[in-house]
Amino acid sequence: MKRPEISASYKVTSAPPNSSKKRKSTSDVWNHFIKETDQNGMVWAKCQHCGKRFSGLSKDGTTHLKNHLNTSKCKRSQKETGGLENPTVTNGNFVFDEERSGLKMVELSYRMKKQKDEVTRLQLSNRNLVQMINAREQNYGVIESANKVLRAQHAELTDRLRSLTSLLQMIEEMSGFSVDIPDSMMNHGSSTVRSSRSWLICSCLDQ
């Protein structure tokens, strides 16, 4: 007895790719580099922090660019420029640290306000000092003018005292002598006029 032939066909199908695991088209590292093409058609990746250029060809990948961002020279440049996005490195990916950037901005704002207050305080202190100096200069001018007047008065009083002293000496020298008026002079005046130095001096003293 002949056994019946049994045929079977199999169709091999492949499972559809998982759409949730699509590869990222652009790396975050390009947030720190600018693509440039020179006159020879060569593509370069220019660092926005330090300006250094690297190969920007897709076949070269981005590992060398990430390594550059981790170098101390580039990190110093990032600090000097403030960092374009203030990135932090996590598993080779650059992620924007918004919290730390916000804290730095608050700290910078506080320092600037503190410096402004200090400048304002110094300006006020200098203004008060200038006013005090001006007031003292004015007082010095008044005192100097008064001193000039006092010196002039002192000189005048000194001259008067010197004159009075000379006059007193002359009076003392003349007090013991008398002079008669000649007849020729009496004829031109009153016959009752009598004069002597001692009499004149006594009359002056009585007045």
Structural descriptors:
single chain; 207 residues; mainly alpha; 3-stranded antiparallel β-sheet; two-stranded antiparallel ribbon; 52% helix; rod-shaped
Q: What's this, in brief?
A:
By secondary structure, the chain is mainly alpha-helical.
Describe this structure in words.
Keywords: Coiled coil, Metal-binding, Zinc, Zinc-finger. This is BED-type domain-containing protein. Residues 1-27, 62-88 are annotated as: Disordered. The protein is mostly helical. The protein has two domains: 27-96, no CATH class; 98-172. Helices cover 52% and strands 10% of the residues. It has helices at 63-69, 72-81, 98-174, 183-186, 197-206; strands spanning 33-37, 43-47, 53-55, 87-90, 93-96. A three-stranded antiparallel beta sheet has the order 1-2-3, with helices on one face. Strands 4-5 form a two-stranded antiparallel sheet. A hairpin with a 5-residue loop joins strand 2 and strand 3. The radius of gyration is 57 Å and the shape is rod-shaped. The model is unreliable at 7-15, 85-95, 177-182 and 185-201 (pLDDT under 50).
Q: Report helical residue fraction.
A: 40-55%
Name the strands of the widest sheet in spatial order: 1-2-3
- How many separate structural domains? 2
Q: Report on the biggest sheet.
A: 3 strands, antiparallel
Supply the helix-strand structural class. mainly alpha
Average pLDDT taken over every residue: 70
Percent strand: 5-15%
Q: What is the β-strand count? A: 5
Give me the number of helical elements. 5
- Overall 3D form: rod-shaped
What is the straight-line distance between the termini? 191 Å
The helix/strand order is EEEHHEEHHH
| Spatial extent as radius of gyration | 57 Å
In the predicted model, the low-confidence regions spanning at least 5 consecutive residues are: 7-15, 85-95, 177-182, 185-201
GO molecular function: sequence-specific double-stranded DNA binding; zinc ion binding
Protein name: BED-type domain-containing protein
Keywords: Coiled coil, Metal-binding, Zinc, Zinc-finger
Organism: Quercus rubra (Northern red oak)
